[in-house]
């Protein structure tokens, strides 16, 4: 529990200066069309979407990233997180329900080398917009897991949920126990590579209303934490998660946390 509280505080209290804009990236030029499917560069518009990330990460395996919109920004329906220099650059793909608008969403990512970290979002009118920061970090995708394998198996799939009011909005924090193995890590006892196994599908609802869904790759951090503002409707929070090994978990939490 203490680890989860520290993770939530890390997300809740970003302390980085915004002097790390996106850098020219030959890798992005290749990814933009071949992987993301964009023939032209999406515009940067911080009022529609802004991305906060540290200039230099304290821990490359736990890099906090916060996506925000101005209060009167046009709503977003989807977003793709891309880390240009990661072995698998697409970190996660999200779909958002109306209750998350205007967006204020936080997640922790693995960054494997000095890289642009960018979000490409889709507005409700279908137009794309981009935001990003250049993050100095290395080795995040192969960093050893924080616990022994027995502890990992014993706690996998455990969830916690809490809510609080902040700046006039309801803030939910969802914490899920999972090693999110990237396939690039080694067992510290056997020194053999650990097969990839991470939560690749996540769905969070309040009642029947979708808050957000996620399709993830190897770059979402161990024991993922999601912190987001939302408009509550009084219904219970329902979470469904699936990993690559075919495990699935379902939890329901009282709306008040």
TrEMBL record:
Source species, domain of life: Bacteria
Keyword RNA-binding: no
InterPro entries recorded: Fuse-rel_SoxYZ, Ig-like_fold, Ig_E-set, SoxY, SoxY_sf, SoxZ_dom
Ranges of residues in domain Ig-like SoxY: 45-141
Keywords attached to this entry: Signal
The Sulphur oxidation protein SoxZ domain, residue ranges: 170-253
Signal peptide range: 1-17
NCBIfam families (alphabetical): fuse_rel_SoxYZ
Protein name: Quinoprotein dehydrogenase-associated SoxYZ-like carrier
Protein species of origin: Paracoccus spongiarum
């Amino acid at each position: 529990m203490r680890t989860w509280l520290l993770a939530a505080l890390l997300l809740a209290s970003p302390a980085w200066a915004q002097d790390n804009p996106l850098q020219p990236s030959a890798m992005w030029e290749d990814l933009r069309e071949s992987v993301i499917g964009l023939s032209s560069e999406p515009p940067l518009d911080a009022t529609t979407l802004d991305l906060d990330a540290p200039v230099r990460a304290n821990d490359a395996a736990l890099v906090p990233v916060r996506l925000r919109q101005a209060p009167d920004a046009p709503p977003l329906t989807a977003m793709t997180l891309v880390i240009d220099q990661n072995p698998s650059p697409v970190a996660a793909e999200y779909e958002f329900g109306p209750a998350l608008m205007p967006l204020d969403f936080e997640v922790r990512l693995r960054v494997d080398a000095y890289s642009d970290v960018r979000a490409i979002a889709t507005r409700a009118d279908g137009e794309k917009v981009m935001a990003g920061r250049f993050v100095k970090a290395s080795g995040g995708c192969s960093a050893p897991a924080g616990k022994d394998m027995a502890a990992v198996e014993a706690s996998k799939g455990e969830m916690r949920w809490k809510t609080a009011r902040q700046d006039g909005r309801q803030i939910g924090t969802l914490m899920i126990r999972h090693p999110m193995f990237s396939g690039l890590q080694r067992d510290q006892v056997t020194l053999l590579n650990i097969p990839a196994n991470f939560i690749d599908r996540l769905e969070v609802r309040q009642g029947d209303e979708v808050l957000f869904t996620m399709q993830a790759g190897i770059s979402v951090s161990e024991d993922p934490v999601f912190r987001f503002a939302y408009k509550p409707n009084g219904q219970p929070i329902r979470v469904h998660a699936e990993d690559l090994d075919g495990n699935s978990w379902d939890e329901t939490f009282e709306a008040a946390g």
